[in-house]
């Protein structure tokens, strides 16, 4: 298996190079040169498989010969060993043919654990092979950073730098980030939004300051962030339809990696009849799917904070697919977007996207009502992100005969304070921890200051 860049420069890399990367050398994102495709009979024969074996069937074609089969099996099995549910991601029924895929049984109680746990093991394996040092870099508005901190805490040869908006993180999230060992993890608050943090990270990878240090992105610009999500679609579809019955999915837009993974799973042969992109008030993706207008926006704070942004890096991979894997066309579109913050694709490409994808934007009052409704009708509390997906799935599904699966990305306990105010939480509400004084923040867009800070941090901890 080889990988190429979405921007078509002729870059060709193996799986190891992709794992140990931030962006491709031309600034694009790595994508598989070809996709494995399975027959309906092959997929149906996987219905009885435990999660780690299913994971190996789905992931191994993307690894190719980069890792010995027995070693890969061990790495995959170990990745989710510390999840606290024996099914790893169990299904919960919330209505007639309506289900929630619980993705929050990992160490930090969010779906981000799936990518982080897998990536940390792959990175540790490959760094051991090449004998190099690496800096794991990324941006977070909460759960992604917490998952990365936990997963990479003991990764030999790797340290971490993390950007986050200095205003906008919940106090409990910020306090959790501040527990990181300062000799291992450097925190960089940014005077801007999560989108501004993402932009700085992308620019940093294109102008890397640390010679001899491998830059690795913990955000889903790294292909592993997509790869870890593909198996989730297979797992749910096999549980509900044996891999034969069509299944629909509603995915709260906390990452385009999870959405794009559904597109890839369908191309691999899985019978997915619909993917609903579920957004809150920050509806950039809804506007793209609904009206073919994608633009960066000022983010609003909502009840579902992991969705409060508008810059989705993996959209570039999807556009590359829509344009027939034309790197030149993708490069032109993405450079235009980077210059002016707006993007529309050709009408044939947009109509092609609409074959699989629908979208629905949910406002705050609807989120509150859905949380209360689900509690009254099922006896179970769900977090606001899941409520966004569940409502969108019910309102916009194409077929009542096909199961509709909502990605439940965050544990209800992480929203205990809010759920308690709505009368749907019966457990303990944690006390908000004390937040220490933050380090000096970076000005929005100040790449040179970030480069200098990274150099100082690396030299000081070397």
Automatic annotation (TrEMBL):
This protein's record includes keyword Hydrolase: no
Residue stretches making up the Threonine synthase N-terminal domain: 2-80
Domain Tryptophan synthase beta chain-like PALP: residue ranges: 92-343
Pfam families: PALP (PF00291), Thr_synth_N (PF14821)
InterPro entries linked to this entry: Thr_synth_N, Thr_synth_N_sf, Threonine_Synthase, TrpB-like_PALP, TrpB-like_PALP_sf
Keyword check for Isomerase: no
Keywords of the record: Pyridoxal phosphate
Cofactor(s) recorded in Swiss-Prot or TrEMBL: pyridoxal 5'-phosphate
Top-level lineage group: Bacteria
PANTHER family named among the record's database cross-references: THREONINE SYNTHASE FAMILY MEMBER, THREONINE SYNTHASE-LIKE 2
Protein name as it appears in the record: Threonine synthase
